[in-house]
């Protein structure tokens, strides 16, 4: 099974996606997701210029060897661009291997450990009534776990909060991401946020009762002591997790938060290597690993990372926003089904237009996702539909404090 071609496809059915398609001499194809929100073309060029030529003629079945060849062989290790490129190759090779075996990928990873993967959706509102409506709308869609994000009094717009009411069409401020040559800028005030959020969770629990799993994303905006205070303030509302409380690169920050609160902690969507987690896991400073298969070197690397997490009793909570393509999402679902230490899966739902380009077979029933039993990853790329949506620059917003200082998020 020699690799005959490796092509990159950039398409933008509402938001930008980078896909790698590997074809073998005997005609099998595999897909890999290489989408890095706001830096898409850097990964596309890395793959096209520096990776695709190395793949031609290689044995498509040698997945571990190819991973090590691209990781160790490049000398320059880690980083989001490199690891997204390696991830795309890895996913495509697993897709091919599973298709050759006539099995869904999860079977090659050890088979199913559960009926399906519990998914959480993103509810949000500019104020509490809008938020409660959005939670109801998500429950109607079948979600059994909900991420809660809210507007903050005094701030015009907040990332992750839809700018129109539930059912108003637009789901999310930057979904699709802001299109244009420059990122939008938002104003942020952490003290206003900390004053507001506990009351919002109180209202949500009062309306929906104690059972519904609730999650919250801090988008890396707090200092460790602020995050410790928020975690403590949210304890009465029994969160499933508090995500990305502090900037991700500072692993030691989690020590301080952990000393002060029993609210479970999740982090890692901006991480790209197991080495980003060593302190967090060995000192048991987190409860959930948030990495995406797409940004962490693919199925091979993610499986090793999650196995290591399992040693410390830490569970998975893989990143699944709409800037992970349906290919990356499918790869996550096969892992979700197979690993033992599954926690939860983020599932934002792609737009109908995206699903015209990427034909998926995964299912969502009674709050559980299943990757389906289609051989391989179970996603096909409609190249004609993809060609109809050319790349257009789109960026995540930049965050500034009220005095204009650039802030973490
Ligand atoms: C999440 C995230 C996303 C990211 C986005 C970045 O938890 O889903 O924080 O909203 O910001 O995926 O590209
Ligand atoms: Mg997040």
Automatic annotation (TrEMBL):
Organism the protein comes from: Streptomyces hoynatensis
Biological processes, Gene Ontology terms: amino acid catabolic process; carbohydrate catabolic process
InterPro entries per UniProt: D-mannonate_dehydratase-like, DgoD-like, Enolase-like_C_sf, Enolase-like_N, Enolase_C-like, Mandel_Rmase/mucon_lact_enz_CS, Mandelate_racemase_C, Mandelate_racemase_N_dom
NCBIfam families, alphabetized: ManoateDhtManD (NF043051), PRK15072.1 (NF011654)
UniProt-recorded name of the protein: D-galactonate dehydratase family protein
Molecular function via GO: magnesium ion binding; mannonate dehydratase activity
Source lineage: Bacteria, Bacillati, Actinomycetota, Actinomycetes, Kitasatosporales
Database matches in SMART domains: MR_MLE
Gene3D superfamilies per the UniProt record, alphabetical: Enolase-like C-terminal domain (3.20.20.120), Enolase-like, N-terminal domain (3.30.390.10)
């Amino acid at each position: 099974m020699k690799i005959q071609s490796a092509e990159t496809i950039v398409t933008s059915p509402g938001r930008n996606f980078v896909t790698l398609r590997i074809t073998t001499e005997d005609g099998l194809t595999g897909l890999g997701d290489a989408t890095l929100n706001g830096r898409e073309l850097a990964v596309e060029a890395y793959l096209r210029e520096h990776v695709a030529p190395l793949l031609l003629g290689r044995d498509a079945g040698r997945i571990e060897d190819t991973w090590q060849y691209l990781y160790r062989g490049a000398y320059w290790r880690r980083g989001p661009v490199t690891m997204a490129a390696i991830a795309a190759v890895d996913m495509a090779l697993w897709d091919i291997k599973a298709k050759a075996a006539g099995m869904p990928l999860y079977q090659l990873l050890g088979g199913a450990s559960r009926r399906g993967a519990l998914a959480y959706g993103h509810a949000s509102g500019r104020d509490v009534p809008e938020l409660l409506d959005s939670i109801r709308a998500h429950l109607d869609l079948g979600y059994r776990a909900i991420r809660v994000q809210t507007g903050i009094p005094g701030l015009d717009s907040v990332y992750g909060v839809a700018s129109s009411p539930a059912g108003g069409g637009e789901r999310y401020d930057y979904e699709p991401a802001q299109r244009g040559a420059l990122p939008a800028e938002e104003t942020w005030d952490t003290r206003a946020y900390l004053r507001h959020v506990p009351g919002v969770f109180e209202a949500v629990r009062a309306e929906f009762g104690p059972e519904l799993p609730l999650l919250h994303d801090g988008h890396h905006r707090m200092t460790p002591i602020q995050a410790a205070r928020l975690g403590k303030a949210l304890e009465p509302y029994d969160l499933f997790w508090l995500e990305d409380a502090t900037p991700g690169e500072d692993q030691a920050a989690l020590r301080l938060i952990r000393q002060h609160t029993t609210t479970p902690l999740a982090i890692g969507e901006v991480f790209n290597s197991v080495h980003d987690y060593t302190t967090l896991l060995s000192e048991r400073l987190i409860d959930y690993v948030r990495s995406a298969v797409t940004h962490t070197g693919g199925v091979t690397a993610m499986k090793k990372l999650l196995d290591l997490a399992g040693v410390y009793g830490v569970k998975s909570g893989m990143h699944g926003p709409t800037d992970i393509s349906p290919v990356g999402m499918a790869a996550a679902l096969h892992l979700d089904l197979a690993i033992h230490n599954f926690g939860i899966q983020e599932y934002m739902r792609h737009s109908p237009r995206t699903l015209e380009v990427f034909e998926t077979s995964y299912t969502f029933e009674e709050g559980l996702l299943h990757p389906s039993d289609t051989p391989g990853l179970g996603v096909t790329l409609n190249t004609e539909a993809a060609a109809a949506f050319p790349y257009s620059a789109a960026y995540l917003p930049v965050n500034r404090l009220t005095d204009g200082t650039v802030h973490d998020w």
